[in-house]
Amino acid sequence: MTEVLFKVIIIGDPTVGKTSFVQKYVNDSFRRDYKMTIGVDFALKVIKWSDKCNIKLQLWDIAGQERFTSMTRVYYKDAHACLVMCDLTQKNTFQNSVKWKKDLDLKCTLVDGSPVPCLLLANKSDISDHREVTQDEIEELCREHDFIGWSETSVKDGSMIEESMNFLIEEMMAKHAELEGFSESFPSSDSNLKLGKDDGTASNSSKCPCTLT
User: Fold this and answer.
1) In this predicted model, what pLDDT tens digit does every residue of 66-125 receive, in sequence order?
2) Which of 26, 159, 179, 184 has the highest CB neighbour number within 10 Å of its CB?
3) Which of 110, 78, 83, 109 is closest to 7 using CA atoms?
4) Which pLDDT value is given to residue 32?
């Protein structure tokens, strides 16, 4: 049995749902009360990816408060992938997702020098009455800033949590196989789900498979 360890960092403004996302994904639990993350919190999830491969996910929930940003270089180190989260009901958190992506790109790369793959998650899709960000705006930002994809999520009802993480794991597994020089990639999970589509109209550097919801 092969075991692969991946470090995934979760970044974004305060109160967008980063800690709740981790708790929902790892423990399938949701708490309404908000507890501020101090610096960074950690969680571990082991996934049976196939009959021949287990994946250990280290999830680093990084505080969004400005006073902790001086430490982000340390927190980002050796990351294999990233989730940038924003809140659909607070447009400033969506706009700030560009700042978080640029901060990561400036401070961290994969071992081959390529950018850390980032997935943009627009949380709180269940609160449709207070939505401040359109899907067209999300897709445009995603393409302009080289996110590998995006999805609307709801940590409260669990919408698109597993699917988003499976998509990110597929990306990490493909990159891992490439870096290790395997002639064939590791077997995929049983799920054939992919986040959205690539219509082929963009250049290779700006392609962004986005969700269809």
Assistant:
1) 545 666 888 999 999 999 999 999 999 999 999 999 999 999 999 999 999 999 999 999
2) 159
3) 78
4) 62
Please determine, for residue 51, whether its predicted confidence score (pLDDT) is greater than 60: yes
Q: How far apart are the first and last CA of the chain?
A: 37
Mean pLDDT for the stretch of residues 151-180:
93
Say whether pLDDT at 202 is over 50. Answer: no
Q: Long-range contacts: 164-168, Cβ < 8 Å, 24+?
A: 164/83, 164/119, 164/121, 164/195, 165/25, 165/57, 166/191, 166/193, 167/119, 167/193, 167/194, 167/195, 168/8, 168/81, 168/83, 168/117, 168/119
What pTM did the predictor assign? 0.83
- Whole-angstrom Cα distance, residue 108 to residue 75? 10
115: amino acid identity, one letter = P
Residue 28 above 70 pLDDT? yes
89, 53 contact by CB (below 8 A): no
